[in-house]
Amino acid sequence: MSMKLLILGLLMEKDRHPYNIRQAMVQRNWTYAFRLRDGSLYYAVDQLRARGWIEAVHTVPVPGEHRPDKTIYRITEAGRREFDRLMYAQLELPSYPQHPMMLAMPFLRYADQDRVAEIAARQLAACEARIASLEQVLEVKAARIPASALRMIEGVLEFGHAERDWLRTIIAEAENGVYDEVRTEDDGWRRRERPPKQNG
Question: What are the tens digits of pLDDT across the range 64-83?
Answer without folding.
Answer: 766 677 899 999 999 999 99
